[in-house]
Amino acid sequence: MPKTKPFWNPEIETMPRQDLEALQADMLRDVVDRAYRKSPFYRDLYRKVGITPRDIRSLEDVRKLPFVDKELADRAYPFGMLMCERSELRQVHAATTPSRQILPIWATEADLDRWAERCARILWMVGLRPGEKLQNAFRFGLSTGGFGFHLGAMRMGMTSIPASIGGTDRQIDFLVDLGVEGIAMMPSYGLFLGMRALERGIDLGRESNLRVGLFGAEPTSTRMKTRLAELLGIKAYGEYGMNEFLGPGMACHCPFKKGMHAWGDQFLVECIDPGTGEPVAEGNSGELVWTWLSAEATAAIRFRSHDISRVVWKRCRCGRTHPRVRRISGRTDDALSIGGFVIYPSRLQDVMALFPDVGPFQVILDSVKGLDDFSISVELRKGAEVDERALTDRIRSAVCSYLVCTPSVQVVPAGSLGLSEADPPFRIIDYRRFSGRYGAEE
Ligand SMILES: [Zn+2]
């Protein structure tokens, strides 16, 4: 493919809206039919409301289908959302849920192939080209993190460097010495890495070939992206993905940065009023609801993201026709993003319940050198006689084990947090909201 072409897949990326919606309608019928036949979870769900695949004829008919969210999907554990033979599975990832904390996300070879395709489109869209190098500092593990852009870079003909997160000095050395052109990571880690380079006296803007940064997995503001661009000497692009859909790579900024193009040949994105569930007018603010149209293994149909944004279809100046998701301006639930992980306060409460000697607790989230700082203060119950140091270690390792994030933990005397045992017996203070992480944009 000539390196000067503006699109990786011109036929799909510039497909007229009418054709794209006709394709989406066909795909919606197929995926609902398959979910109904193969997924016990969806069959039960649709039977309860009297819906069969025959009721889904047009794209608008999607509104007949009930929503699914993490709480409901939790009941599908472990195989309820699977809609192919188990022998066809090639990779499994996991999303978090408020109660069970883990929901398997399945992928067949075709799912991995489509994941690679949409990430290749993104890498091309932000200006990277075959023969160049992508240092991928998203986390590699059960969450989908690093894998999408790893597959996409290879598909597009780039060299993938699966650096994952951490080992910051080595990452900086790689960026400079290997002449890396593109980097993908969480914005908070980007700030940390950029500031570490400064501490070492390295000006990445002058001493590296870096020119493109892809940032996702946590909220970002314009101010933060501007800072990243200065620190790393790059153009900063936002990308969007959810573990439930093998994100990242569901949507990304093009060079015009008027919203993130959501790939309509793989996903259907709706924007609804979170209270009534009815669609909002195009361009109005609402909750994003996603349907994974191209999925072969995991059924995810009308899945509520709890992300608040706007969706616009107007053709973009870049020539792409796929709908654009504007900035994520907030959430409709109480999920917290800590170091790129989604954490539910209810789950934290479950972990604390493992310790009968402790009462109410307080969580403080802050931003230190660009990275999330997560600390928990727990009240010791009146009369409890414990080795505080051992208790602190046990709480820290329990939180780490159940929620993946490791907090700093302090044990404080009964009553000192000013919290009652009444519901909820905890308080969350998130100073990051005032530090530019959630600033206004676009
Ligand atoms: Zn565009």
Task: Give a brief rundown of this model.
The protein folds into two domains: 10-332, 3-Layer(aba) Sandwich (Rossmann fold), CATH 3.40.50.12780; 338-434, ANL, C-terminal domain (GMP Synthetase, Chain A, domain 3), CATH 3.30.300.30. 29% of the residues lie in helices and 24% in strands.
Please work out how many helical segments DSSP would assign.
12
Write out the distinct hetero groups bound to the structure: zinc ion
Q: Taking Cα atoms only, what radius of gyration do you get, to the nearest Å?
A: 22 Å
What is the helical fraction, as a range of percent?
25-40%
Low confidence ranges: 435-442
What is the third-level CATH name, the topology of the largest domain? Rossmann fold
Average pLDDT across residues? 91
CATH first level of the largest domain: Alpha Beta
Shape: globular
Largest sheet: 12 strands, mixed
Q: Superfamily at the CATH H level of the largest domain?
A: ANL, N-terminal domain
| Assembly state of the chains shown | single chain
Q: Report the count of strand segments.
A: 20
Which structural category fits the helices and strands?
alpha/beta
Number of domains: 2
Account of the protein in words:
The structure is a single chain. The protein is an alpha/beta fold. The C terminus is likely disordered. α5 packs across α6, α8 runs parallel beside α10 and α11 packs across α12. It folds into two domains: 323 residues, ANL, N-terminal domain (Rossmann fold), CATH 3.40.50; 97 residues, ANL, C-terminal domain (GMP Synthetase, Chain A, domain 3, 2-Layer Sandwich). The protein starts with 9 loop residues before the first helix and ends in a 12-residue tail after the last strand. It has twelve helices and 20 strands. The strands form four sheets. Strands 3, 4, 5, 6, 7, 8, 9, 10, 11, 12, 13 and 14 form a twelve-stranded mixed β-sheet that branches. A four-stranded mixed β-sheet has the order 19-18-17-20. The protein has a two-stranded antiparallel ribbon with strand order 1-2. It binds zinc ion.
